Amino acid sequence: MPIEQTLILVKPDGAHRKLTGLVIDRLDAAGLEMVAAKMTCVTEKLAREHYAALSDKPFFEGLIKYIRGEFHGIKDHRILALVYRGENAIKAVRAVAGATNPEQAAPGTIRGSFGRITTAQQFENVLHASSDPADAAREVALWFRKDEIIP
Ligand code: TYD
Q: Ligand 1, closest atom to CA 123?
């Protein structure tokens, strides 16, 4: 199985609901290795670059506000960004995370247990996890410099 790196973001709802430790605990338990971590500021530019592939979706502007903490009063738009590495890490992390839509996420997954859809139809699904190797490479490079990642 390939050794992969994948980007995880504990989103503002995760931080607000004190789920940061739980996310790290579940990822550690999946047998993956954390190789980078930082609290970082989500600028408007970074948010739009991160979600560039979704810019034509109707939920895009809400997503930008959400990831920047505007719904949760997160000071300075900080977010916890992590890189995990391991065999099949991309799929393994997404299995722990659960489906994008919290209502469809299996019980016991992070999103199945803790995600929700607000009355304004905003998905709050606790974390971001890269979806495939090309996305993972692009996203890791967007959020981290090379020298911030353990080789
Ligand atoms: P996407 O990249 O499709 O999912 P994932 O985060 O599982 O890789 O979507 C990015 C984010 O956009 C998702 O985490 C939540 C939000 N989103 C919505 O708010 N509504 C939607 O219908 C979809 C598909 C996504």
A: 19
Q: Give 66: exposed, middle or buried? Use CB within 10 Å, 0-12, 13-18, 19+.
A: buried
Mean pLDDT of 105-113: 98
**Which residue minimizes the CA distance to atom 19 of ligand 1?**
123
CATH topology of domain 3-146: Alpha-Beta Plaits (3.30.70)
Q: Against a cut of 0.85, is the pTM above it?
A: yes
- H-only helix segments in the chain: 12-16, 20-29, 44-50, 60-67, 89-97, 110-114, 133-143
Report the alpha-carbon distance of residue 47 to residue 66 in Å, rounded: 10
* pLDDT digits 0-9 by tens, 21-74: 999 999 999 999 999 999 999 999 999 999 999 999 999 999 999 999 999 988
